[in-house]
Every structure is written in structure tokens, then in C-alpha cells.
Automatic annotation (TrEMBL):
The keyword Disulfide bond is annotated on this UniProt entry: yes
Domain Ig-like stretches: 15-102
InterPro entries, A to Z: FN3_sf, Ig-like_dom, Ig-like_dom_sf, Ig-like_fold, IL-12, IL-12_beta, IL-12_beta_cen-dom
Gene (name only): IL12B
Subcellular compartments: Secreted
Name assigned to this protein: Interleukin-12 subunit beta
GO molecular function: cytokine activity; cytokine receptor activity
Amino acid sequence: MNCFSINAFCCHTIPQMTFPLWTFGLLMISLTGAHELNHFPENFAVANRNENYTLTCNSKPDDIVTWKLNGDPLEDEENVELNGQNLTVSDIGTPNLGDYSCWRGEEMLSSTYLLLKADEEDTIDSLINCRAKSYDCNFNCTWTGNGYTAVRLGLGHNCSESCQWISSSRWLAEGELQFEMSHDLSPYAEESTMLELTAEAIREQSVFRTSKRFYLRDIVQPDSPQIVKCELVNEDVNVTIAPPSTWSAPYSFFSLEHQIEYVLRDDGQTGHSSSTLIPKKISKLRVRSRDSLVLSNWSQWTPWKNVTY
């Protein structure tokens, strides 16, 4: 219990329950059963339902090759046709999805996991929520989609061709996935470039892909500030507030504005103040902050602090 005492005036922290995060050092996270595809294969292709797709073999022109699907040799199966060293899969659907590998004798030359393009029923705004605690080079994204067995995020404008993909390594207590993302925007320059976030997710051998664009300032939400002390000034209380330790420095450049909520002792009425001077006769108070320049999202409120004389 913290107590800030000046002129016999104290603020006491009201105890608040916290919940731990479960953290696992996994490259890929499985959200459902162990028999699902719980990672993105090193090489995979995405095809449209009921269309044809040709798989190529990493072979030499005079090689005699054979193909396997999920480790089983392909011979006279329907919807599969050998064209030289390449393999064409027709009328693509669930039965002919999986790991296609090309072999020269007992040597595997290449493999490609054939997946289906999913119908985009979900939108990225309903699946992903991103938040930056400051203007530093990192921010977090939380994935809330159900039923997906592998998820990854990429940041950049060319993720359809090449991207540095990030896989989650953290479970949140509610069963959601959290991603740690990085960017190279300067915190001191005027923001003119939007970030582009791409998400890919696998469910039942289908790949869902979507993207969104936003400015960093749109996702900035500071952590809760710190109430340093309370002191009497004539008939008012002056509350000294410090930025959270995660906020960008110097504070003179990255300024915050604060809002104080308090409860009057006599009648229990609630009041708000953007000034650090508030009425003396209060029973408790709490504080939140936001970027004063771009008017970012407000931080979460601090825990209530009891006020005694």
C-alpha cells in the first residue's frame, strides 16, 4: 500500500486483482487440435476451389521423377495429371489438398503444400486489434479469431510477394494470440506514411488472407500514468502526475494531457478535471492520460486511490 502524505493528506492505493499471461516459446501456435495443420509450411501454394493448379519440380531436364501426396505415391488418381516433370491438380477441393513432393528415386527434390483459398467471411477489423504504448519502434497486435490453427502477421507493402512474417509466441489469459510488431518510422518526424498490416491464417487446410492500413498515431494508447503525490494548496488538492515508464521521451516533446476523476466526500457525486487542481473534499480519485497533440486514445484509468486527512 502506497501512501503520499503531505500536510496530513494521503492517497492510498485500492488493491486490484491482476491476471498472469501464459507465455510459450513456440514458433507457431496451434489454436485447436493437435491433428490440424498448426504451422505455415516452408513452401506452400494457395489455389482457388474447383480450379486447376500446376506444381513444379526442382529437377534437371533429364531427370525421371515421381510424385507423392502426403508421403503416398501418386499413380492413377483422379484430378492429377503428370505433364513432363510437373504435376497439374484439377478441380481442386479438400480431397486433393496436402503435401505434394517430387522425387528422383529415393531423393526428394522439392515439396509444396497445396492449400485452398478461403472465403473471406471475416474482416481484419473483427480479428485484429493493434495498440502502440508510445511512438517507439514497437507495437502489439491481438488476434481474436476462433477456429484458426496457425496465424502470422506481416508488416510492409509487398507481403503478397515477400514479407518478414511474425508468428505469435504468447497466449493471453482469454485464449487470444498476441504479436510483437516492429516498424522503422521516426518518432520525431511528421507521420505521412501509413503502415500496412497483412494477416494470414489457416483453418481446415484453407488460407485466409487480409490486410489493413493505418497511421501509427491512430493506434497509440499510453499506459496508465503514475500518481506521484497529492498535496493541499489552500482549499484545493494539487495532484502531481508522471507519464508511464513506457511513454516516449523526452516528455517535453511527447507531451501528455491528463484527466482526473474524483468522488466528492459529502454527496458521492463524481467530477472530472483536466487541471491538476481538484476540490479538497473528495474521498477518492483516479487518473488517465492521452497524447495532447494528436488526441490519441485515452489510457486505462489508474486504480482508485482513497483520500484521507
